[in-house]
Fold this protein.
Amino acid sequence: MTSHPNIVFLFPDQLRPDFLSCYGAEFIDTPNIDALAIEGVRYDRAYSGSPVCVPARTALLTGMNAIRNGVTDNLHRVRSDYAAAGIKTWPQLLSDAGYYTAGIGKMHFYPWDEHHGFQHRVICEDKRWLEVRDDYYHYLRKKGLRKLHGNEHDGYFENKGAITHKLPWEHQWDRFVGQEAVNFIDTYGGDGPFAMMVGFPGPHCPYDPAHDIPWSYDPEDMPDPIPEIETDTPVVRQENIEANERPWNGVNYTDFKLSHKKKIRAHYASLVKGIDHEVGEIVAALGKKGILDNTIIIFATDHADYLGDHNLIGKGSFYETCMKIPLIVRVPGKQGKVSKALVELRDITATMLHFAEVDIPSNMDSQVLPELSITDAEPRDRVYGLLTDGWMIYDGRWKLAKYGTGENVLFDLDNDPFEQTNLIRDSSVSADLARLDTELTSYIMEQYRIAMHDRLVHSGDMSQDAGFGREGWSTQFPSPVDFAI
């Protein structure tokens, strides 16, 4: 591999690792994603610290956790003038370093056509954003087609969002994104180093495989969901129900039967299979262009999907089946390896900068991924969860989650991997609980110390500044922050 490798970052939305055969799924075959794992490093303990769409993506974009970057729920955004505060996104940093940067597909930016450092964009946004006039909208319009809400399909409400889409596979969201990624490689792949992020809208709900896909899955072959412990987080579940009743989805999950969950899982598996197909097309395009051996491929997702586990749907808490994600890094010349290191989604950011020989800014708390042959990075010893309505700490065994509902849970994942026994009131583990609670509180306090970096008046001490003492003093705003202070 020569210096300044290309970087291809494949990023489906809401993908569970246990729906990939390389992570042990026996009911589905994902050979193209598996091939990346065979040739690269597969991380078995990778987590999304802020497992909701926009917070997860913003942590990745900025290399900063959700408190530092100020985006802790889906209605927050990164300021368009963020760079004025001395903060740059990873696409901007790579663009500055001579990379041609491309964002293909779903990025979930506000506004949706913002670039945030990407020089080239082909946009195919969230499957629920029917009013967005993105490139996919115009593609469909030229074909005499349009975006369709799930509720325009038979069985949408009865099957809890699991439908067969009216549009053929040829014109589906993920197919469009995969083809546009191939087009980018064909057109620009030989022009010098590039960094391309490919955001697939699937397998996010609605669970809507096309009617003519060449594969299908039997609901009876799907694994059973993890049972709900009704005394653990009933208010979290009620909020999950209410959120999904809003117009973006419109489905009521109060009565959520096993048959519903199995059907959803079968449809979800079909979407995963479709993404695997697109991954194969993209890798083949790299090979055809003669640049595969100088391209690093990263495969991950923003968060997972309960798919009925704990009687929940979608995402939004710190249960394993929401925040545990697939993460694979294929570095040319590196043979298959499985890492048990504790890693976080936003560690991809520092890793991409490292590959590109770009210094990692001091504002980032992203770390280079460990166990790659070209690094000597250390793994994390903690993963922290940060959302508007919840905080979490996981030390590799014990997980403490505290929710704005007032519900708190403590799980020993070594002995309870499916999170079925809440130990929050178990006196035998009170010392572990106290330790975790103290660590979590201290961590959050430290993050708030620099959370207002884009509103600082001054980075240091103004008490000895004669200029500040005079009438008419003004400050640069936003004030560039020195994160070493």
The mean pLDDT is 93.
